[in-house]
């Protein structure tokens, strides 16, 4: 094994490398075995359809089931008793636990709870069993982390026992991280917290979904000194006391940790309980909250940020990886043709065969795969037993177990092929397409009979039984196009690969300068593509009456895919919504229509016009709308700004900033400012 990368996300020395279970924690004093609750479900459907047939914690991450990384974290913390709460695919999780060598290091109980649909429900289920006797670790089963939890346990125990603070019921682990290092796809990914620097007590916690940081001034009465931190990420692990379970049982409407439990405890006028933060500056922590995070964490493992949780240490599942320069991991019993080319950041599992002239780069290839002669794979994730035909081209896609791709087929960026899908020869699967054979799983408690179904529901059930779309997969193919259900919209927000995901860590400045002119045309095309995509999303949403939050999720996905700002989105959204107005010769009617649209779509408009500068840029974009020949005579700028101000979409400072900025723009801009005075 090569040494870990120096610097970076918590590199560790080679002497720290140990097999699972070789370490005995100092926390375990023999009186009470340390317990842990592992949540097998995320209670989201952000990785559909890959989780239709396999629980997320058993999906392979760099060819290792995800749960194995979480189990190693718990082994190193000294956990002896483990409770795994499983709602979906519980039978597969039970079978895995029964046969897993890693699970034999614990006393494991799988709590099967098919009706549980939230973290709150899972903890209430555990509480009802009466299994938890003392402090325990709470962790998600899709977490990969090399952070040491022993110091966190010690700090929590000291606070409760030595300092006699029985109100200290939870210590949350946070990792320092610069905002530009985070991909804040979901609200829980982008947080701002206030902490008492003397005691580390958590004073305030909020996802940054509102305009700026907002804290109740009364919080300072008990905490005269507060440190506001926007450089922290929740590390997906917490030390809890049994009172946490009791609280969830008492507060039956608490479902989520971030939106219900933490605010509920911090701002309760009745409860005296306290939450604390433990901040680490070294180590790695990642969680597979989406397909994009799956790709990101995979590359972090391959690039050794998570050391010693890297392939060639061979901690898990009897793997036999060796590290080959440059950045290639290969297991034993791999057959590589002499003329094949294996690029950097590539992992190849045992019993895989790679044909003559094949090219593989930035990819993870599972066990027992076959890569045909002349095939090209770039940025791909292949699970086990995948067969790729000769001359096929695959880029930035994911193929689940037992997928077959025919000769000279093309699988484009961000495609997902579910288990057992087959793509015929010479077929092209277009960018972003997801193909599945499996049926969408029914939630527990759903009414499966057909009584009372309306025509639309019956039609949906008929369509779901269509297992193969020959136009999509080819004459001898297998699979149909996956369409997101109403509760699966989050799966569209963070696709597998976003722009710059696989950029090299060390950029060459001279190369960047020499290529800047060539990239100019591509940047213009990207900007035009982004504008078209957002316009289509918003126009369709307005016409079909889609909920603002669903439109927001789709726009957010395009925002991150194209590396755009909130202002870029806000400008397009405002103008597109107003462009849905029917042209009228009546100025009064035009006023009324504009005001109605702004009030109707206020939740969406406010979502992206966040800062004063975002709002100013949006007003500049509105200038072009009100100056169109159809609207110029109606002088709409003033009523639009007034309505936006009255509805708290635009702030007063932003309007003044737009007015002052107009002095440096065109005479038309100055004229619009005069209209609004």
Describe the structure using short key phrases.
677 residues, alpha/beta, 9-stranded mixed beta sheet, 7-stranded mixed beta sheet, 19 helices, 35 strands, 18% strand
Structure description:
The protein has 677 residues and is of the alpha/beta class. It contains 19 helices and 35 strands. Helix 11 packs parallel to helix 13. It is globular, with a radius of gyration of 27 Å.
Distance between the termini: 71 Å
- Contiguous helical run count: 19
Shape from CA axes?
A: globular
Which whole number gives the mean pLDDT?
82
Number of E-type strands: 35
Strand order of the largest sheet: 15-16-19-22-25-28-31-34-35
Multimerization state: single chain
Strand content bin:
15-25%
Which percent range fits the helix content? 25-40%
Structural class: alpha/beta
| Major β-sheet profile | 9 strands, mixed
Radius of gyration: 27 Å
Low-pLDDT runs: 1-30, 444-464, 500-524
A few lines on this structure:
The protein is α/β, with parallel strands linked by helices and 677 residues long. Strand 2 and strand 3 (64-65) form a beta hairpin.
Secondary-structure blueprint:
Blueprint: E1 35-39, E2 60-61, E3 64-65, H1 66-77, E4 81-86, H2 90-99, E5 107-112, H3 119-129, E6 136-140, E7 143-145, H4 150-162, E8 168-176, E9 191-195, E10 202-207, H5 219-222, E11 227-229, E12 232-240, H6 243-250, H7 257-266, E13 274-280, E14 285-287, H8 291-302, E15 322-324, E16 328-330, E17 335-336, E18 341-342, E19 346-348, E20 353-354, E21 359-361, E22 364-365, E23 370-371, E24 376-378, E25 381-382, E26 387-388, E27 393-395, E28 398-399, E29 404-405, E30 410-411, E31 416-417, E32 422-423, E33 428-429, E34 434-436, H9 455-464, H10 470-473, E35 480-481, H11 509-544, H12 548-561, H13 566-578, H14 587-600, H15 602-608, H16 612-626, H17 637-646, H18 652-661, H19 667-676
Parallel strand pairs: 1-4, 1-6, 4-5, 8-13, 16-19, 17-20, 18-21, 19-22, 20-23, 21-24, 22-25, 23-26, 24-27, 25-28, 26-29, 27-30, 28-31, 29-32, 30-33, 31-34
Antiparallel strand pairs: 2-3, 6-12, 7-14, 8-12, 9-10, 9-11, 15-16, 34-35
Helix pairs in contact: 3-6, 11-12, 11-13, 13-15, 13-16, 14-17, 16-18
């Amino acid at each position: 094994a090569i040494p870990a990368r120096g610097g970076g996300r918590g590199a560790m020395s080679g002497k720290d490398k140990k097999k699972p279970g070789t370490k005995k924690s100092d926390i375990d004093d023999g009186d009470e075995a340390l317990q842990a609750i592992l949540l097998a479900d995320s209670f989201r459907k952000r990785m559909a359809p890959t989780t239709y047939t396999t629980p997320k914690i058993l999906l392979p991450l760099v060819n290792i089931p995800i749960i194995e990384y979480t189990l190693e974290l718990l082994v190193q913390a000294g956990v002896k008793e483990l409770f795994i709460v499983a709602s979906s695919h519980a039978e597969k999780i039970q079978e895995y636990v029964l046969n897993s060598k890693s699970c034999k290091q614990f006393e494991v109980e799988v709590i099967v709870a098919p009706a549980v649909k939230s973290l709150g429900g899972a903890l209430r289920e555990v509480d009802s069993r009466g299994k938890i006797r003392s402090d325990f670790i709470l962790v998600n089963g899709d977490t990969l982390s090399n952070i040491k939890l022993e110091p966190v346990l010690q700090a929590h125990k000291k606070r409760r026992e030595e300092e006699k603070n029985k109100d200290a019921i939870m210590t949350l682990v946070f990792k320092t991280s610069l905002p530009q290092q985070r991909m804040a796809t979901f609200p829980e990914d982008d947080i701002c917290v206030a902490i008492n620097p003397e005691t580390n007590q958590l004073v305030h916690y909020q996802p940054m979904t509102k305009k700026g940081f907002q804290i109740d001034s009364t919080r300072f009465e008990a905490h005269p000194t507060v440190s506001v931190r926007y450089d922290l990420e929740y590390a997906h692990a917490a030390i809890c006391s049994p009172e946490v379970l009791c609280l969830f049982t008492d507060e039956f409407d608490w479902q989520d940790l971030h939106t219900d439990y933490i605010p509920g405890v911090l701002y309760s006028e009745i409860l005296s309980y306290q939450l604390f933060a433990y901040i680490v500056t070294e180590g790695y922590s990642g969680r597979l909250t989406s397909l994009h995070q799956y790709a990101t964490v995979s590359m972090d493992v391959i690039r050794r940020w998570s050391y010693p949780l890297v392939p060639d240490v061979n901690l898990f599942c009897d793997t036999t990886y060796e590290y080959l320069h440059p950045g290639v991991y290969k297991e034993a019993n791999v057959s590589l043709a002499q003329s094949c080319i294996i690029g950097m950041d590539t992992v190849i599992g045992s019993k895989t065969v790679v044909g003559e002239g094949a090219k593989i780069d930035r990819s993870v290839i599972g066990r027992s795969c076959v890569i045909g002669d002349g095939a090209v794979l770039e940025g791909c994730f292949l699970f086990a037993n995948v067969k790729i035909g000769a001359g096929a081209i695959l880029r930035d896609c994911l193929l689940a177990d037992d997928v077959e791709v025919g000769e000279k087929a093309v699988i484009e960026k961000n495609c997902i092929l579910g288990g057992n899908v087959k793509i015929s020869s010479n077929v092209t699967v277009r960018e972003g397409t997801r193909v599945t054979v499996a049926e969408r799983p029914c939630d527990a408690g759903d009414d499966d009979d057909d009584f009372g179904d309306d025509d639309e529901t019956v039609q949906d059930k008929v369509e779901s039984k269509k297992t193969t779309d020959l136009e999509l997969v080819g004459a001898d193919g297998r699979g149909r196009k996956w369409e997101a259900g109403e509760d699966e919209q989050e799966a569209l927000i963070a696709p597998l690969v976003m722009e710059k995901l696989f950029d090299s860590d060390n950029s060459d400045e001279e190369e960047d300068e020499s290529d800047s002119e060539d990239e100019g045309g591509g940047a213009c095309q990207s900007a035009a593509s982004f504008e078209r995509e957002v316009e289509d999303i918003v126009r369709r949403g307005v016409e079909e009456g889609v909920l603002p939050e669903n439109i927001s999720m789709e726009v957010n996905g395009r925002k991150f895919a194209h590396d755009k700002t909130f202002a870029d989105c806000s400008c397009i959204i405002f103008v597109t919504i107003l462009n849905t107005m029917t042209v009228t010769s009546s100025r009064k009617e035009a006023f009324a229509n504009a005001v109605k649209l702004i009030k109707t779509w206020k939740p969406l408009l406010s979502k992206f016009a966040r800062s004063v500068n975002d709002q100013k840029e949006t007003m500049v974009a509105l200038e072009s709308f009100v100056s169109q020949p159809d609207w110029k005579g109606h002088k709409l700028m003033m009523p639009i700004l007034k309505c936006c101000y009255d509805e708290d979409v635009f702030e007063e400072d932003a309007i003044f900033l737009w007015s002052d900025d107009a002095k440096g723009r065109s005479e038309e801009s100055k004229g619009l400012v005069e209209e609004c005075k």
